[in-house]
Amino acid sequence: MKKVFFLSLLSSLSMISCSLDGSEENNLASNPSEGITTKSILSKSQAIDDFKKALADANNPTLVKEEIANNSGSQGFGPSRKKILLEPAKMVLLSTGMTTNIVNGLEDDAIISQAFISMSNEQKP
C-alpha cells in the first residue's frame, strides 16, 4: 500500500512539474514587455556595455570632486555615484545567471564589486 501511494505521489509530482514547464514561456509570449526585459537581461555583453557607460558617468569629475570634499579619506563610491552604477550592475549580475532574489539580497557595494569582476572576466581572452 505504501509503495502504491508513493508511486502515485511521485507520478502526480512529475505531471505537475511537466505542466508547469512551459508556463514561463507562455507568460513571456503573452506579455511582450516582459519578454523584452528578459531578452535584455540575457545579453551579457550589452549589460556590460551599459555598466561601462554608467561607470563613465559616475567618473564625472564634478561628482568625484564633490565626494572628495564630502568624504575626507573615505574609500569607495559615494551615494550619488552608487546610484548611477547600481541598476547597470544589477543587470550585469542578472545576465550572468544570478537570480533576482540573490541580487536583491546583496548589499550595494557587493553588487557593484561583482559587476566589476564580471566585466573583467568578460575581457579575458
Verbal overview:
The chain is mainly α. It has two domains: 1-30, no CATH class; 41-123, no CATH class. 82% of the residues lie in helices and 0% in strands. It contains eight helices and no strands. The chain has helices at 2-21, 23-30, 32-42, 44-58, 61-70, 79-95, 100-105, 108-123. The radius of gyration is 22 Å and the shape is globular. The chain starts with a helix and ends with a helix. The model is unreliable at 17-40 (pLDDT under 50). Keywords: Signal. Residues 1-22 form the signal peptide.
Summary?
This protein has 125 residues and is mostly helical. It has eight helices and no strands.
Uncertain parts: 17-40
Ends: how far apart? 59 Å
What about the largest sheet? none
Helix content: over 70%
Kindly name the structural category. Answer: mainly alpha
Order of helices and strands: HHHHHHHH
The strand count comes to 0
**Average of per-residue pLDDT values:** 73
If you compute it from the alpha carbons, what radius of gyration comes out, rounded to the nearest whole angstrom?
Answer: 22 Å
The coarse overall form would be globular
Helix count?
8
Strand-residue fraction?
Answer: under 5%
How many domains would you count in the coordinates? 2
